[in-house]
Amino acid sequence: MAALEEGFTLSAVPLGAGPHGLLGVEQSDRPDQFLVTDGGRTVILYKVSDQKPLGSWSVKQGQVITCPAVCNFQTGEYIVVHDNKVSFKTFYIIIYTTNQMLIILGISGRWNAFLTSVFSFKVLRIWSNEDVNLDKVFKATLSAEVYRIHSIQGTEPLVLFKEGAVRGLEALLAEPQQKIETVISDEEVIKWTKFFMVFRHPVLIFITEKHRNYFAYVQMFNSCTLSKYTLLLGHEEKSVIQRFTASVDRKVISLMSLSSDGCIYKSLIPIHPNDPEKNQRVVRSLLLKTVVSGNVRNGIALTVLDQDHIAVLGPPLPASKECVSIWNTKFQTLQTSKELPQGTSGQLWYYGENLFMLHGKFLTVIPYKCEVSSLAGALGKLKHSQDPGTQTVPHFVNWETSRGYGFGSQNSEQSKRILRRRKIEVSVQPPPSKQLLSTIKKDSEKRIVEELCKFLASKQTPDFHTIIGDIVLELLGRHKVEPSFYPRNALMQLIRTHVLSYSLCPGLMEVALEKTDVQMLQLCLQQFPDIPESVTCACLKIFLSISDDSLQEAEINMESVSDYIDSVQEEKMEEQTEILHNGFNPEEENCDNCDRELNKKPQDTAEETTSCPVIPKRAALLNAILHSAYSEMFLLPHLKDIPAQHVTLFLQYLYFLYLKCSENATMTLPGLHPPTLNQICICSELNKIEVSFRELQKLNQEKNNRELYSIEVLELF
């Protein structure tokens, strides 16, 4: 049973008006006091029981606090990080040339803003309750940007940098300008982080995102090990993870994520991995279904309250108002909820038995109570007095499908009979996965697909991704023994479960390459996060060499090209199509037209609309290559295996994409999943040396009186 009590406003002044909203609410060294960091310049210390501020500190005008202030529980001092931008009204660059000439350039306008951003430093401040002016307290200028400072009871504060490196506060203060290493890869961005104590040892977890792929990093400080995990999506498709929360026990971190489909998913991450050096994978399983409206992108949050309860912020239905609710994760029931008519910022914190959130523009505290989880409490059968403004709602999931027990409207005797009958059925029937594996060994593909559909429709177990991998290996094993057996439809269904990876079934893409199955290769490139560069190049070689006729017959996903390729084809058709009346074109009477066509100069064609050098289906396949993850160092050795004419075609397509990007002010392509400019920047690099090539060509034309043999040295500046 859980209940939300009457809330109260903690701050009398509006908060969260800055560009970053409310940065955070953190526990002070006293249980009833909390540090509130506004997204602008201010840190306020509040005492909740008195509902009043005890102190307030602000950075100077022009400076911005970049992460929540925290309390150092070992010293009772407060810590915050802000930027320290240098403002340039007029900035001069002094250049000494080789002939000792002095050149002075004055810079202003938009360059002023650029230089201000370049000369921006990250400053760490430490102060106590007695300090009044933050400008006069201890400061340390850091060499890298800070993502978050973590501080909990029992250990020193930790500083997490935006590139993934972590430092203890004392080690950082001993050498503030020390070089900070880069832990995460390029374009990888930290989305969420949390700090725990496990057996008196600090453990840090942070989640990163890159191209809608999510990774979990777990840092153990007692053994100085950093483990990386790839979060594999389950059966949900095209859902974007929006919020995270986590709890920890002795061996496992329970990571919960709220996705754009409105559901909460759970991933179990081991604290002590078997192989810390290896990038391991964890799969998400459904925990709670549709806790908020799937159409909402802002104003949602979640946080774990205890072992069996979770608090969720957001509207439960598309047309409903925002509310805060408490769910029982053990019995999957909604326990209580309270409407927030003035809206929220999508931020939620909890300490002790208090929930903190922005209600409108004011920081609000809502006390709550969660009792030990029991079935009677989950069903709302316990007798408790509750606030009239809250609703205790026994919101049920379908126990018949999600738990396998006969609760609901049936009476006790009916439930017992159903349970007895199910026990008999379970004891007789083998597990669905074993039954499917047995079918794969002997039956036809049609029969296998039927059994596979039944298996995928059944309840997913925590080892679902491992079972899917075993099924793929069994199918590939039979194909190896019987080359005529190619269960393409079954393999495509298994790839679409979103739980496979290259390392889980390396033979799958080899078979697709052998069969020149471009549709399967495209799907693998879109789904697998760990494809080796050699396999990526093999796919590129096939995509460039396969004939247009073969591609026309293949079923290719055209999402990445549907917008900009179609528009180019339409423009081309409009230019080539002329209106004919009864098969007669009046312009053909004029012979001068024919002369003009014959005498048309080659450079005139360059002014026409740029056409795509490949057909749309080939373009979609090449986009899959551009979207895939790779390392240039490992990719380059394999590119030499691609014939020159195919490399030229690929460069022509990249150049076409670059020109299409250049048509927009945003330098982006239209469509659902088009390539980004970063994925085709190679052409912009080639453009930089175009001038040099032109100069070489000019020199070639000028020197016509060469002898039979000569050696020339050309200097490029």
From TrEMBL:
InterPro entries in the record: NOL11, Nol11_C, NOL11_N
GO biological process: maturation of SSU-rRNA
Location of the Nucleolar protein 11 C-terminal domain: 434-680
Cell location: Nucleus, Nucleolus
Ranges for domain Nucleolar protein 11 N-terminal: 1-86, 117-369
One Pfam family here: Nol11_C
Residues in coiled coil: none
UniProt key word Mitochondrion: no
Predominant cellular place of this UniProt entry's protein: nucleus
PANTHER family associated with the record: NUCLEOLAR PROTEIN 11
Protein's recorded name: Nucleolar protein 11
Taxonomic source organism: Canis lupus familiaris
